[in-house]
């Protein structure tokens, strides 16, 4: 596995040179599936208020399906093909808030498999359109089950599994290939690039697949990196209290099997509006569009920044803000759904903790 380069934003206004990276050693992937992984890392020097914190981001939006979910999607399907759980006639059925659905749609289309994705109204419209464009079928649940859309999605998944012969549920919520994809991929790339010399890793949690895989890899390597799980306010993970959530890709209303009895060095909860503020701040200060969970991760770092001075901090940004233009980056949506005016949001995004 190749080691990623950490890119620095070029600073040319003050005559400091172009800062352009070398394009040597660029490899041609055999196909779209083989281009998954080895995503870039960049240094974010403008986001935080306090100096002397080395903040480095892993940009998972550079995967061909646009998110970190490409990694477990590939591993779950290809391991199923290897062990015989999946064959050429198998129908793949999964619940997703968007990104896993895109990853699976891509992998299933590449391998010629039928895929049915179960989504709910919180899924980004653009994500659903991408899933359909990749040839998948979409089933929408319109009402929560016992107040939880994930429970409603899982109920429909089970109904479809019962009704469709030769069907397979990857089950991202309990499939160990989910964390293993990150253990053998995402965190290994970060660790190789930084030579193991980073003090903190901040990861958004939902199924906890990414955070769990990262923690396990670091423990096996004997690293002393503290893994901070970033969870949504209103999520029941880590003994949280259930509440409304509008930002997809972070938090859970039903406890996934992968999350049971999981412990991390710290847990930081971030509200929906703080996720939005983080996205806006990253765009304004770093010229970087990040998705809702990425905004939450960056705000979690900012909440803890007084503890991080003198430290090297890595963050995983799961997807791009391009898929959130009609929500996170839409002032009217933010005011309607989160009750925050454009002016108040601007103040929040630019305030100091």
Please provide a written account of the structure.
Mean pLDDT is 93; it is low at 11-18. This protein has helices at residues 70-83, 99-111, 125-133, 149-163, 177-194, 209-220, 272-286, 292-303, 305-308, 331-338, 342-350; strands at 6-7, 41-43, 54-59, 91-95, 114-119, 137-140, 167-168, 200-204, 226-232, 266-270, 312-317. Helix 5 (177-194) crosses helix 6 (209-220) and helix 7 (272-286) packs across helix 11. Helices cover 37% and strands 14% of the residues. It has a seven-stranded mixed sheet, sandwiched between helices. It folds into two domains: 6-67 and 182-350, Rossmann fold; 70-168, Rossmann fold. With 353 residues, it is an alpha/beta fold. The longest helix has 18 residues, at 177-194. It is globular. The chain has eleven helices and eleven strands.
What's the helical proportion of residues? 25-40%
- Total separate domains: 2
Q: Report mean pLDDT, rounded to a whole number.
A: 93
Question: What would you say the CATH architecture of the largest domain is?
Answer: 3-Layer(aba) Sandwich
The computed structural class is alpha/beta
- In spatial order, strands of the major sheet run 1-2-3-11-8-9-10
**Which radius of gyration do the C-alpha atoms yield?**
20 Å
- N-to-C span: 39 Å
Query: How many strand elements?
Result: 11
**Major sheet description:** 7 strands, mixed
Give the CATH topology of the largest domain.
Rossmann fold
